[in-house]
Design goal:
This protein has 655 residues and is of the alpha+beta class. The chain has 26 helices and eleven strands.
Length: 655
C-alpha cells in the first residue's frame, strides 16, 4: 500500500514532505520519452491501458463479432485505427470531401453554415455550441454558446509580447504552414496562408475571456432569447450555422457564456476576407484530423503539440493512441467490458462506506465553523446532505444503437461519425429534463470530479486502485489517499465556484453578506500563499486560476483527517498507535496523501501548465496544504521553525 523504497530519508519531512516521501521514486523513475509527465496518475493509467488493450485486441480478433453490439464497435474501431497500411495509403484523401465544402465558402452565410457543419463532428471553429444544464434551472437542458476557435492552448499565447511567446508563435505559424502543404498548398503560398490563419485566431484571442475570468459562473451565465442571440451575432448568420449543425431549432433560449466574443465573431465575419476564412477553416479541419491520418500528418502534429509545447521526446505507440480514441469516443461501451473484468463489487462497497464517513466528518466540521452564521450553515448542510455519489460506473449504460462503426470506414471517418453521434445525442436533450444518471467521463478513467449543477461527486473505477485505493490496506493509507480525493471532490462543492450553487445545483446566492466576506478573506490568504511560489524561470503559480483546486486540497485533507480520526477511535486501544513500516497511523495518513501526488513534469509541460492548468504543480499540492496543518507538524514532531510550515498566524482554514 505504501512504497517505502520510494522515500528519500536524507530529507526531513518538515523541510520538504513531497521529496521526503517521493524523492527516491523520482530519482529512479525518469520521465519515459513518450510522456510529458510521469507519476502515480500516469502509472495507474498505463496499467489500465494494458487491460483495455487486451479487451480491444480480443474484440478486434474475434471472427464471430455480432454486428451492432458494443463489442463489434470496439473491435472494428480498434482494428481500423491500428491498420496503419490503409491509413498510410489513404494519405490526405479522407479530407477531400470536407475541403471541397470549405472551398465553396464565399459569403458570411456559407461561412456560418460550414462552421456549423464542422461543429457537428467535433471541430469548434469560431465558437463552441453544446447542450448544458440551465445553471439557474438545473432540471432543464438548454443550448449553450461559448468562446473557442483557437489552435494554441490559451488566448495569452497570441497576445503576450515576451521573447518566448514570440518564438513560440513563429513556430506555430511554421507548423500551420507545414500542415497546409500536406493538404496541397505550395510552400510559399502555405507560408502566407498560415499568417492569415494566425491573424484570424489572434483576433478571436483578443475577444476571449482569460482563464481566471472564466471561473466566474455569474459572468459566464447570460441566458437570452434565441432571437436576441441571432442579433448579438450581427453579421455572422447564426441561423445558417444552426441549420447546418442540424439544430435549426435549438430551443427558445441560449446561454451565451461570453456575449462580447459572439459580437466579435459577428464583426470579424464582415471584416475578414473570405479567402482568409477559407484558410482558417482548412486549418481547423486538418488540425482536428491530423492524429487520425497518415504518418506525415501525425508527425507534424506531434512536433508542435507534443515536442514544442510539452517537451515530449517520442510519440506514444500507436496502440495507446488508438485506445485513447476508442475510450474517448465510445467510453461507456469499452467501460462496460472493463468493469465486468476489473472492478469487483467489494471494492465499490468499501469505497462507498468511506464516502459516507467523510460526509459525516464534513457535516461535523460545518457545524463547528466559527466564522459562518447559522443561516448559511443550514444551507451548507442541506447541500452536503443532497450530494449524489456515483461510484465505479453508471447504473444505466449509454446506448450506442444509433452509431454504426464498420471496418470499411477510414479511421478519420469513424472518429467523425462518433463525434456526430455524440453531438446529436447531447443536443437532442435541449428542452428535456436532465438525466441525473449520466456520467461525464468513462469508467476506466484515472480521475474524479465534482459537478456543481448536478451537486454530485463521481469516482470512476479507473482510480479506485493502488495507490489511490488499496483494498485491505490500513486506514491511514486509504484515508490519506482515496479519502483525501473524496474529501477534495466534496470540498469543491464549497470552493470559490462550487459555493455559488445550491443544494439542487442551481446558481443561487445562499450566503449572507458577512459570511461571503469572510470566505473571500480566507480564500485570499490561499490565493496569496500560492501566488508566492516561484516554480521555474521566474514563473509563479497563478493563485487566482488555481484557487478552487487549492481550496479543495486543503479542505479535502482536513475532512479526510477528521474521518480518519473517527475510524481510528473506533478501533481497539491497542491498534490506535500500531505502527506499520515503522510509522504511526497519523504518519501513514500523510504518507498515503503524498504518495498519490508523486510525479514530475518536463520543463515545457511545467510552463504550459502554469499558464493553463487550474491545479498547482504536484509538489505544491503536497507541501503547500500541509504547511497550514498543525496536525501534520504534530504527527512528525516538526520544530517550531520548520522550513516547510507557515507561521501559525499565517495559516488558513476554510472548511
Amino acid at each position: 500500500a505504501f512504497d517505502v523504497a520510494g522515500m528519500d530519508n536524507a530529507v526531513k519531512p518538515w523541510e520538504d514532505f513531497f521529496r521526503y516521501v517521493n524523492g527516491g521514486w523520482i530519482a529512479r523513475n525518469p520521465i519515459p520519452p513518450e510522456f510529458t509527465r510521469w507519476g502515480a496518475f500516469t502509472e495507474l493509467a498505463e496499467r489500465n491501458l494494458a487491460d483495455l488493450r487486451a479487451l480491444c485486441e480480443a474484440a478486434a480478433n474475434d471472427p464471430a463479432l455480432k454486428p451492432g453490439t458494443n463489442r463489434q464497435r470496439i473491435g472494428d474501431f480498434y482494428f481500423v485505427g491500428m491498420n496503419e497500411a490503409a491509413i498510410e495509403k489513404a494519405g490526405a484523401a479522407p479530407l477531400q470531401d470536407e475541403l471541397k465544402r470549405i472551398a465553396a465558402v464565399t459569403t458570411p452565410e456559407r461561412l456560418a453554415a460550414e462552421s456549423g457543419w464542422l461543429r457537428s463532428f467535433g471541430i469548434n471553429a469560431l465558437f463552441f455550441l453544446a447542450a448544458a444544464q440551465d445553471a439557474k434551472d438545473v432540471t432543464q437542458q438548454i443550448a449553450q454558446v461559448s468562446q473557442g476557435g483557437l489552435g494554441l492552448p490559451d488566448r495569452d499565447y497570441y497576445l503576450k509580447d515576451d521573447d518566448d511567446s514570440k518564438k513560440l508563435r513563429d513556430k506555430y505559424v511554421a507548423h500551420v504552414a507545414k500542415m497546409l502543404t500536406l493538404i496541397g498548398d505550395a510552400p510559399e503560398a502555405a507560408a502566407e496562408n498560415a499568417k492569415k490563419v494566425v491573424a484570424v485566431e489572434t483576433e478571436l484571442a483578443k475577444a476571449s475571456m482569460t482563464r481566471v475570468e472564466l471561473r466566474d459562473p455569474i459572468k459566464t451565465y447570460n441566458k437570452l432569447p434565441l432571437a436576441e442571440v441571432v442579433t448579438l451575432a450581427g453579421d455572422f448568420p447564426l441561423n445558417a450555422y444552426l441549420t447546418a449543425a442540424g439544430r435549426a431549432k435549438p430551443g427558445t433560449v441560449v446561454d451565451v457564456n461570453q456575449p462580447e466574443f459572439l459580437r466579435a465573431v459577428g464583426r470579424l465575419a464582415k471584416s475578414v476576407p473570405m479567402e482568409d476564412w477559407r484558410h482558417y477553416l482548412r486549418w481547423q479541419l486538418v488540425h482536428f484530423a491530423a492524429p487520425y491520418l497518415s504518418k506525415a500528418f501525425v508527425d507534424e502534429d506531434f512536433a508542435m503539440f507534443g515536442q514544442t509545447l510539452t517537451g515530449a521526446k517520442e510519440l506514444k505507440p500507436r496502440w495507446k493512441r488508438v485506445i485513447a480514441v476508442v475510450d474517448r469516443e465510445v467510453g461507456e461501451a469499452l467501460g462496460q467490458l472493463y468493469v465486468e473484468k476489473h472492478f469487483p463489487p467489494a471494492a465499490k462497497k468499501a469505497v462507498l462506506a468511506l464516502v459516507e464517513n467523510l460526509r459525516v466528518a464534513l457535516r461535523e466540521r460545518l457545524d463547528k465553523l466559527e466564522w459562518m452564521s447559522p443561516a448559511t450553515k443550514a444551507e451548507a448542510q442541506k447541500k452536503l446532505a443532497a450530494f449524489t455519489v456515483k461510484m465505479g460506473y453508471p447504473d444505466h449504460w449509454r446506448s450506442y444503437a444509433r452509431l454504426s462503426l464498420e471496418r470499411k470506414d477510414s479511421f478519420l471517418r469513424m472518429v467523425m461519425d462518433s463525434q456526430r453521434f455524440e453531438f446529436n445525442r447531447t443536443m437532442d436533450k435541449i428542452g428535456k429534463p436532465v438525466d441525473r444518471g449520466e456520467w461525464l467521463i468513462s469508467p476506466p478513467t484515472v480521475n474524479a470530479y465534482y459537478n456543481p449543477p448536478m451537486n454530485e461527486i463521481v469516482f470512476p473505477a479507473g482510480i479506485l486502485q493502488p495507490p489511490f485505493y488499496t483494498f485491505g490496506a490500513d486506514d491511514g493509507i486509504n484515508y490519506g489517499a482515496i479519502g483525501m480525493v473524496i474529501g477534495h471532490e466534496m470540498t469543491h462543492g464549497f470552493d470559490d465556484q462550487g459555493r455559488q450553487f445550491d443544494a439542487a445545483g442551481n446558481l443561487r446566492d445562499w450566503w449572507t453578506k458577512e459570511d461571503n466576506d469572510e470566505f473571500t478573506k480566507r480564500a485570499k490568504v490561499i490565493i496569496d500563499q500560492f501566488s508566492s511560489y516561484e516554480v521555474i524561470d521566474g514563473m509563479k503559480v497563478n493563485g487566482e486560476l488555481t484557487e478552487g483546486e487549492n481550496i479543495a486540497d486543503l479542505g479535502g485533507l482536513k475532512v479526510a483527517w477528521g474521518a480518519f480520526q473517527k475510524a481510528l477511535a473506533a478501533k481497539p486501544a491497542a491498534q490506535r498507535d500500531e505502527k506499520v513500516d515503522g510509522f504511526t497511523p497519523a504518519q501513514r495518513f500523510f504518507l498515503g496523501y503524498a504518495q498519490v501526488w508523486r510525479g514530475h513534469d518536463r520543463r515545457e509541460t511545467t510552463i504550459l501548465r502554469l499558464k493553463t492548468d487550474p491545479h498547482a504543480p504536484p509538489y505544491l499540492r503536497v507541501n503547500a496544504p500541509l504547511a497550514n496543518l498543525p496536525e501534520f507538524a504534530e504527527a512528525w514532531g516538526a520544530p517550531a521553525d520548520a522550513k516547510m510550515m507557515r507561521p501559525a498566524a499565517e495559516r488558513v482554514s476554510i472548511w
